[in-house]
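Example 3.2
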Amino acid sequence: MDQDQIVFDGSCLTIENIVDVARQNNQYHLSNQNQFVERIDKGAAFVDKLLKEDQCVYGVTTGYGDSCTVAVPLDLVDQLPIHLYTFHGCGMGDSFNVEETRAILATRLNSLAKGFSGVRYSLLNQIYQLLIFNINPLIPKEGSVGASGDLTPLSYLAAVLAGEREVIYQGQQQTTAVVFAELNIKPLKFKPKEVLAIMNGTAAMTGVACLAWYRAEYLSRLITRITSIAILALQGNDYHYDAKLFSLKPHQGQSQVASRIRQDLLITGDVPRNDGRLQDRYSLRCAPHIIGVLEDALPFLRQLIETELNSVTDNPIIDFETERVLHGGHFYGGHIAMAMDTLKVAVANLADLLDRQFAQLVDTKFNQGLPANLSGAANDQLMLNHGFKALQIAVSSWTAEALKLTMPASVFSRSTECHNQDKVSMGTIAARDCIRVLELTEQAAAALLIATVQALELRDKQFPVSNDIQQTITSLRNHVAFLTVDRALDSELRLCVDLIRSRYWNLYEA
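Structure, written as tokens:
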């Protein structure tokens, strides 16, 4: 087997593995090794044994949540899972997109493959079939409080596995039953613990968190490159990024950002350029400190997300090895909630940084002799053309919206379900907010990239430009022309955002 292939076999996966499955960038495989299949099926067999012994098992022979004191007769046990995903079918709002949905499926599959959820191998294979055929359950984003896991969102996965509700297949919304019939996929008939195992976990928030982290990591590097171009365009001071200076406050990520800027600006330690102004404004001078906060947070946030990704997150946990049923709260999404609340604040600060840089670039009081609004119009057309005036307003709008969303979701716990779920994580809301902050910041980055390249070209290359920056400029100009006379920029902005999300620009080392 190819060593680069992603294997769902109970071993640990990375954020990048989930992103690769979500984006269909790599081969992936559900293990069919006898030892793995037997291990998974032993968990389901242990649940069957408990039922034969007439033992009480939460969610198998009892109701759910606060209804755990309600006994379910053995002759009705098989019907209970159907009721679970049915009454949770109350999600609202937009649905997760295809990439997010695939991340959710991969995350849930990875957790169930640990072998402590009391499900059969055939259930794992049914999720795997959804991934292989790119059948994406239509999962509403709204309705989860993040404990007892992502119950409502994941109910849509359970229902689809049973051949119900709707999916996106081949770009169209279709009923699951029709798609399954076309592909000769048999709807799954659930065993007693299996629906609870699917729904009672943190897969929605964690899958989305993997995508958010991946996008933020690239965005940090892109905004560093944009900042380097802005420094050149605004004739900023080299010595603000001096290696000795950053050795005296040695946050690793912050120092890395300063090093990347030095590399971009061809700073070799000689006498600095542009030292006529003693100190630049903070959006240039403190850029390593601002971007560095995100850079330093990323390793810690990776640890939180990947630990959750590789955890067993349902309840109860079925330990067939010691023949124990472990009741706990691993469905609680507090770590993901904190990670996403932290990430969205750090990313929104980058949007604010870009907004301030743009304000300098277009304002003749601060842009060191550049034309007003970075207009590239000829002199006899200047009075008609307005350059990037409206785009600067738009960036401020996107920034304001991003900043508004930084209120931590995790502090808005609500007591739910007859006070059984009396403290909940709100992790899924935090993850959704984080994705929206990323979308807005990516839009701001697209705008600033276009604007800073325009500004640098208006300088007419008054000093050397590094090969890396020249490559960024050249590749942008393959898609976006220099702005001479006013034109609508929305289609070009959308294209640039797509390029950012596809990691079009090679930026430093990851």
